[in-house]
Amino acid sequence: MLTLENLNVVMDGSALTGSLSLAPGRRVAVLGPSGAGKSTLLDVIAGFRLLDSGAVGWSGKDLTQLPPDKRPVSILFQDGNLFPHLTVFRNLLLALKPNGRRASQEDQVRIEGALKRVGLAGMSGRTPGTLSGGQQSRAALARVMLQGRPIILLDEPFSALGPALKAEMLALVREVAGSLGALVVMVTHAPADARRFAEDVVLVAEGKVHLPVATAAFFANPPEAYRDYVGTSQA
Amino acid sequence: MAQRAVAITAALVLALLTLGPIAAVLVRSGGLGAFRPGDLEALQFTIWQALLSGFFSVALAIPVARALARRHFWGRSLLVSLLGAPFILPVIVAVMGLIAVFGQNGLVNTVMAALGGPKLDIYGLHGVILAHVFFNLPLATRMLLQAWLAIPGERFRLAASMGLSPWGQFLTLEWPLIRRIAPGAFAVIFVICLTSFAVALTLGGGPRATTVELAIYQAMRFDFDLGRAATLAMLQLAMAVIAGMIALKLAPAQGFGTGRGRQVPRWDGRGAVPRICDTLWILAAAAFLLVPLALVVLRGFPGLMAGGGMGTWVAAKHSVMVALASTALCMLWALPLANRRGELLSVAAIAMSPLVLGTGLFLILRPFVNPFSMALPVTTVVNAMMALPFALRILRPEAEAVEQDFGRLRSTLRMTSLAWLRLVWLPRLRRPMGFAAGLTAALAMGDLGVIALFADPDRATLPLQVYRLMGAYQMEAAAGAALLLLILSFSLFWLFDRGGRVGADT
Lengths: 235, 506
Hints:
The complex is a heterodimer of chains A (235) and B (506). Chain A is α/β, with parallel strands linked by helices and 235 residues long. Chain A has 8 helices and 11 strands.
């Protein structure tokens, strides 16, 4: 269980408050107007942002004071998920060998396997700059797969991709997360993504983190704060 | 964290090396009573020559920068790049070149004699100023040019469409810019000239053309009056700190950026008179910079072919070793200090003059070893310290960008410090490191400062060797050694800079 208790983060001019608990293995979309604190919420879970008060926990363990690299979390950022000067292989190897050591036989097998899973078989020698946007996303996802952590955070990771490619990537995330049994928390702007991907929706609006609602129920009867933000026509 | 510990250690070593010598000088200082009448004159001369050097450098840079900003011609970007060259040009080489042009038997005097004009003498106040302008006119020109090219093209278009007269356009567009940039440029050059040593050593001297730095040297070298040297060092320190603080206030943010080849389309200056004027300014500036260098090359060839004179090759070997060691040390220092605090710390180090540091280190070392035997190590350390502010100015923005771009990725990957350093930090910083290392190596190669204080005949560096050959009137050998120094300095810069670029374009 990922728990946020009486969360309070001071952002410039406003604050983000609320409580939340998310079960392992769930796929959760975070929706809300820009600037409301969606990314801040992810930063809080990842440890890039420390709480002004409240607590973050994961299956009974207190994470509140832990630095990002000590948390059971992997992240896909909007961009910059791969080091541009390293090959795909070297990038993925860092997930297995954070100390920068050489790959063992086993590492090689695992990396090639992960690349195959995301449809990049044979691309391990390429640098990210020579890959298309979609391929870069796939490589980053393979990295997350190898990290194998129980919480995966996605910060609008596929917003630069076209609709078809994006749908494909979301399906892939779903598959990867399923095989890891990981909780996925995805920040998005697009209701369609939430519908397609998420089991639950968490609304962040007006400085408040709302309780998760099952996706179908959320869109069948959207809360008022959400209707104000998208306008009635789209809701 | 390990990284933090390294950064703190680097900062402490730097602080210790800066403050230690000063403390040593302070303890040893004989108090103000040890001043001699000549010292006051040295102070006056130092300030006066720095004022004049700053004034002429900036005043002459204005028309040159203006001409470069609004003219487009073949070789323009090459000329703009060449304006950066004096920064890594050894002072002694420039002095040789200037003597070849303006000296006793130089080009100018030859022409003057043919025309029956008076004979110029390069030694003394005007020689010192001439050399300072040679070094700092390009610096001022680059500062002004950068600001000039930053004026949006739309403004010139607007001015053209409103039909402003040339004078009107100057007043509305260019004069405000000059007023904004010129004081800072003047201040920076003033500070540089305050601590000028090698120029004063070679072209000044005598009771009427001695700077405080030169007086420190003379007190140490000729009178071996440590108390007086210490007092003078305090005077120099106070002067440099005050002037440095003023300069920091006035200085534009970018001291020596990379030259811009950019061109803003202009509609003014189409008449014949402005065209001719601009052409003349550009030609004059180019000649002033290039003719002395060309003469160093031309006159150096015979000397170099003849073997360069006694001790030149040994001195060259010393210099290359010192340059490489200084570069390594400077980079080791710069990497952990590539942040805002580190840069401030190193600026404090630049306010210190090399001669003051040298004097202090001499006093510290004397009880333990024969300080003269430490000439090369001390030169290495002082050169690394002197180059540190420049290295940091180049590295800091890039280092911060790497942290900004990849810091989060590093956390989520749980990369260890060593892996981060080896796989990300160093590879991402290769280009600026190559450039910074090139500058450091060239500066250390050409330095004629603290080595003059310490050196004995067995431990000369190449710049000192050139100076000695000049003093012994072995002009051919001196010219050969100067050419060798020029080649080595520029080669070292080129090699490092190139090394940073090759294959680093991802």
